[in-house]
Amino acid sequence: AQSVTQPDIHITVSEGASLELRCNYSYGATPYLFWYVQSPGQGLQLLLKYFSGDTLVQGIKGFEAEFKRSQSSFNLRKPSVHWSDAAEYFCAVGRVNTGTASKLTFGTGTRLQVTL
Amino acid sequence: DTEVTQTPKHLVMGMTNKKSLKCEQHMGHRAMYWYKQKAKKPPELMFVYSYEKLSINESVPSRFSPECPNSSLLNLHLHALQPEDSALYLCASSLYPKVLAANEQFFGPGTRLTVL
Predict the structure, then answer these.
(1) Residue A30 — φ and ψ, nearest 5°?
(2) Splitting chain B (116 residues) into consecutive groups of 10 residues, what average pLDDT does each group show?
(3) Distance from B43 to chain A by nearest Cα, in Å?
(4) What is the mean pLDDT of the segment spanning A45-59?
(5) B63 CA to chain A: closest CA distance, Å?
(6) Is residue A98 scored above 70 in pLDDT?
(7) Who is most buried in A52, A89, A108, B82, counting CB within 10 A?
(8) Chain A residue closest to B36 (CA)?
């Protein structure tokens, strides 16, 4: 069965510092991977996605992620964090159920706190 | 129009009440989803509608009853809920239900439900 692990429950970084959020997946075939961000009390916003091709994916708000098949990882990075980046970040893997519909499996999330 | 809207934003109901949550999208998406999210947890899939037909029911109690009147609307009817059903209820949509590359789901802002 597919699964996603986000090892870090909570990360604190200073504004202007670089950021890396870790995501490891378990999936038998080529994974379809996503990073979503959720501000408190809000819905989820897609930051970026990986389906195939270039393993370095650019997203919105200055985020990027790198797919590494050998490490089963899809880590999210940002060179310089802004205070407005404080939020919950979810990594997810997608799967098609034959005859039904696609589903996303989410990791447990990483809460990012940004200090000024 | 590139958004998913949900009403109401907040809902407080007693255990004997009947209420409904509403979700709407005008992006031409043919898959729509209901998720339940408890505090500090990832979203949990409840239901998936594929081309207006119920495609996935993740063993959700019958006190939750989904309905998809047309391709733009998704309702969640609530009856005889329990306090533990208090959560953020998220609606999402995606372009095609069975195409994995279209698994990119667009989320609404959610309805914060409190059951007294």
Answers:
(1) -65, 125
(2) 89 93 94 94 94 91 96 96 96 81 83 96
(3) 7
(4) 91
(5) 23
(6) no
(7) A89
(8) A43
